[in-house]
């Protein structure tokens, strides 16, 4: 009975491990949305929050237009994988922190709160400090009691958060280590992120930022000319963040997600100014972003998740679970791993660690494999006893290794759609082969 229930227990644990991060993201996003709505409502008479605090120099534009703009921004509608939780946390902290300045006598508690959140964001992901540098500098510049701000707020909060980080890392790594410095050393000083790809300096301005904003881009540009001068600090923050990230060779869309809440402020001003064209503009934003969100969330590149569900079911249904093994012959990080299987099933994927030794002409396992997949397989599995029971490949690789599949008695047992737009080493479908 114990053996019968064991797979079920693993499946339940696997579901918890794979589903908990999206729930945490949803909670963080909900809290951030509530904070945004609360801060925006302070400027509107008659709202449930109006009059609770007096808005200061950064008074938001219409709550309705900003909510409409944010709700129609497709990256915000669905979770982003991989690595979404830290980025969602960064954006959430920025949304929570960006609220109208209260009167002087109420500013100290609010200041401590935002400083603590900024420090927490930095500890979790050091790059989170980038968009906050101009905002914190503005706060420091406008503060009358600058020395008091440093001695009684910045230094104590920084000391406490850094100490907690050191203690946690000491427990985890078994030795004293400053993770934030290691992050800086790896990504900036040694610039090892280029191993995973590099782009020209202008990429964020010419491709990255326009792609992330999508159909909101014209409204953002329009709003930049309409927004009051007091909002220039937000535009400076966006430009500052793009410039800093442009200095690094390795660039990704997700790196600039945290500035999107600031961009929506300008989109709100644009929509509020349109008057006659407001409803058509909102309809355009809704349709363009919703269709894109549905396609990318439900159709595009879904195969790598579907195949892991298949592997999870394999663990439960296969009578010979003890002898089953899986080899994922795909580009690195194509699929999740044990978070979606959560069963002691031997699994292997092509390795692609960065070169930490400084070797010239360094090639990782995945690169070597794709130079000559058929030859690599014959060398790697010269003994039939080492062959895995299941192979997972993209459809584009099937023809090239068909001789090995036939000789090793593999048979295709499952096909999963992946994308309508295959490129490079990625195919339109994912094939599962089982050894008979």
Automatic annotation (TrEMBL):
Entry GO CC: endoplasmic reticulum membrane
Keyword Glycosyltransferase: yes
Membrane topology per record: Multi-pass membrane protein
Enzyme Commission no: 2.4.1.-
Location in or out of the cell: Endoplasmic reticulum membrane
Keywords: Endoplasmic reticulum, Glycosyltransferase, Membrane, Transferase, Transmembrane, Transmembrane helix
GO biological process: GPI anchor biosynthetic process
Cross-referenced Pfam families: Glyco_transf_22 (PF03901)
GO MF terms held by the record: alpha-1,2-mannosyltransferase activity
Bilayer-spanning residue ranges: 114-137, 149-168, 201-221, 233-249, 255-274, 281-298
Region Disordered, residue ranges: 35-70
Source species, domain of life: Eukaryota
The family this protein is said to belong to: Belongs to the glycosyltransferase 22 family.
Function (record text): Alpha-1,2-mannosyltransferase that catalyzes the transfer of the third mannose, via an alpha-1,2 bond, from a dolichol-phosphate-mannose (Dol-P-Man) to an alpha-D-Man-(1->6)-2-PEtn-alpha-D-Man-(1->4)-alpha-D-GlcN-(1->6)-(1-radyl,2-acyl-sn-glycero-3-phospho)-2-acyl-inositol intermediate to generate an alpha-D-Man-(1->2)-alpha-D-Man-(1->6)-2-PEtn-alpha-D-Man-(1->4)-alpha-D-GlcN-(1->6)-(1-radyl,2-acyl-sn-glycero-3-phospho)-2-acyl-inositol (also termed H6) and participates in the nineth step of the glycosylphosphatidylinositol-anchor biosynthesis.
UniProt name for this protein: Mannosyltransferase
Organism: Canis lupus dingo (dingo)
